[in-house]
Amino acid sequence: MRRSLSLARGALSARPSTRARLAAAALLAISASLLAPEALAAQLDITTASIAELQAAMKAGLSSEALVNAYLARIKAYEDAGPKLNAIILLNAEALKQAKALDQERKSGKLRGPLHGVPIVLKDNFDTFDMPTTAGSMALKGSIPPNDAFVVKKLREAGAIILAKTNLSEFASTANGPDGFSSLGGQTLNPHDLTKGPRGSSGGSGAGIAAGYAQFGLGTDTGGSVRYPCSANGIAGLKPTRGLMSRDGIVPLALSYDTGGPMARSVADVAMALGVMTGVDPADAATAPSAGQFKTDYTQYLVKGSLKGARIGVARDFMGQDAEVDKIMDASYAKLKALGATVVEVKLPEMLTKARADLLKPISGREFKAQIGVYLQTLKPDYPKSLAEMIAKLDAMGTAYTNPWRLANMKEAEATTGGLEDPIYKVAKNEGLALVTATTKAVFQQQQLDALVYPTMPMPATPFAAPPPDAPRPQMYANLANQTGFPDLIVPAGMTSAGLPVTLSFLGLAWSEPKLFGYGYDFEQATQARVLPRHTPALKTDVITY
Description:
Oligomer: single chain
Number of domains: 1
Structural class: alpha/beta
CATH superfamily: Amidase signature (AS) domain
Largest sheet: 11 strands, mixed
Distance between the termini: 65 Å
Number of helices: 15
Mean pLDDT: 92
Helix content: 40-55%
Radius of gyration: 27 Å
Number of strands: 15
CATH class: Alpha Beta
Strand order of the largest sheet: 2-4-3-7-9-8-13-14-12-10-11
């Protein structure tokens, strides 16, 4: 009996410690559940998040207002202070108000589209009915156009918020002046190296997206002005097939070459942005052939493994100007092989690598003279109505006008004789461009290529200061895509030892964007080469808790 009483007393004496252990275990379980990801407040980093991730976060409770504030914090930190990149020419004073309105729409069950509440930036040659569109020129300071550009209207309808207009090379032309400079916006700097240029003319969009000022941006491309800024600043982008995006409402430079194009941190965001902007526009006849070709959702082509079985041509004619760029390209070509592509060496006919100046000059000067006049006619009465009037206005400013390089270039265009009826112009446009296009198609057909790859820029970003007039200019080859009208997708490929980005271009035949997105996405996911620029590092405000 004593034994059983003794055991009972022992059991009773053990009970408090057992209860304590059970209580402690329960507390630990509760703590663990509280620390579990699903119980924590969710977070989103604006410097790495994709559009799809933004939409998922906003569906779960993130507000567009918070998103806009986070991007504005980066702009304030790196435009108003810090490196002062000068990538922004004008902030949208209504951005927060618009974000709040879109948040209310979302709460009420109205969702405009895949860009609902997403902050973007526009190169300041895209017309906006509520903000000035200046092309970076003092001649157009304060000019508010009558309506939005076709693609801008589509972006707004899809729910995008125009956070700012970005600086550019004035009238989208480098004109032998400083890289990324305009008389109204000043000099834009490269966030990877403040002594280097952002590579005009869409340098403000390139530097701004690399620095994390918005989710994506728009640039324009006449001779490489979407692709070169993407390369110099280390981001993704697309010069689309001519006619896939309307040019209506974009200040023209030379419509035989001009197109808009999306610029973003990732191939996925470029694809998402493009699908919102496509469509036939009666105001731009070049879009008519896109009927039956354009897609409204290019994200469906973002598939890992897309390179497997693809036949990719390597254009070494576009290399040989910088040893580090060539080394990164060779590693990129090896990666394409590792991902299952058949990589073949392609020697391009000399006329494709030498035809740039022979065709660009007789076309671009004459077209700018005529086409800028048509655009100026749409503006309010107190602005110039022709190139001659604009030159006179700028001449009258004397030294107050700070872009003598662009003025000299405009005077050269004004002095061009013959206009669009000149036989030299007609031969270059109708026969020269057709010959380049046919020859490029023949290369693709003979080699059975799905795409042609090469360094977007054969050298890293260069100093922004205007080179001496007699300085040799590097050989650039982006004009092949402009002369043919073919698409060119840009994907980050690596960094030089000096911390400058290098990108890989995927050139395809007309309307081949779906294939290019697949190839570019596959390469991007395997390499993950994009980096946040060292002069615009992460901020605490980049991470939003919701």
